[in-house]
């Protein structure tokens, strides 16, 4: 809350929290105080399902470099899967 | 001053108050044993939540002779580990200022109703809690001293105004009617040294009583011994300034 830089994204999937796997539906992305990282601020991502309460959370606290690399890597992996015609196959059956 | 031949006892427990909108709000309360009367303190937790550090701080203030209450400003977000609850609040951009001020006023009134409080109540906060301390003491009568430890967001550019935080606390400076002790780190990013200077100018302009200390070699959260931000010498000096200031302002 000190920076107030926070956004929410609809992200469907599954996350493994302290009580096991749960269906998550949202990613909360912030540049603010982390809880564990030794830095004053970090790129924090919380994968959550608010309907299960605050404990349904998978948290990561990333450095700037790590966060940027993650974005690029996700895009690269999705791109490769797309190029090989693998995306959409699951839905098609 | 504590001496080794002195009896000392303390009661510390979770209590509940009625905060904003009549909502039940849990609070941690610690007090020295005895009839008193003792001065009161409201402790406002930081962004990382109503956590162990704030429980320890509550007992520390009690050890120094204050009936101390620390309300859970994140109550409406549900219960769980302090990190999980605070993460939910972080995602929402913090708690609404109006709600926080009402919870803090209720905490202050809780102390004022106690038979062993001397009629003086101060407020202390760190990080977002420092901002809340300034805000509450500016908007509510009944606080006799304010300790603002590195409260970011007292000075707010227009683009940081949000529905939860619709007015910058500095804009209420004319209404502030209690002395302020401010402790800040020169390497902090929120508040910056420029932010602190702007706040200082506003306090001067309105003729308010205050003392600000800017610590070199320290950044945000230099009291937090469990974080790399801890700065031993600055923290020890800061605590001494707090006890001196509160003794001057809240002694019966």
Structure description:
The complex is a heterodimer of chains A (93) and B (252). Chain A is α+β, with helices and mostly antiparallel strands. Chain A folds into 2 domains: 1-62, no CATH class; 64-93. Chain A is 26% helix and 42% strand. Chain A has helices spanning 64-83, 89-92, and strands spanning 5-17, 20-32, 42-48, 57-62. In chain A, strands 1-2-3-4 form a 4-stranded antiparallel β-sheet. The longest helix of chain A has 20 residues, at 64-83. The relative contact order of chain A is 0.16. Chain B has one domain: Alpha/Beta hydrolase fold, catalytic domain (Rossmann fold, 3-Layer(aba) Sandwich), CATH 3.40.50. An 8-stranded mixed β-sheet of chain B has the order 1-2-4-3-5-6-7-8, sandwiched between helices. In chain B, strand 7 (180-185), helix 5 (193-205) and strand 8 form a beta-alpha-beta unit. The longest helix of chain B is centred in the C-terminal third of the chain and has 19 residues, at 232-250. Classes of the chains: A alpha+beta (93), B alpha/beta (252). Chains A and B meet through strand 2 and strand 3 of A and helix 2 of B.
Quick structural overview:
Chain A contains two helices and four strands; from the N terminus they run ββββαα. Chain A has 93 residues and is α+β, with helices and mostly antiparallel strands. Chain A has two domains: 1-62, no CATH class; 64-93.
CATH topology of chain B: Rossmann fold
Report the helical percentage of chain B. Answer: 25-40%
Order of helices and strands of chain B: EEEHEHHEHEEHEH
Number of helices of chain A: 2
The count of domains of chain A is: 2
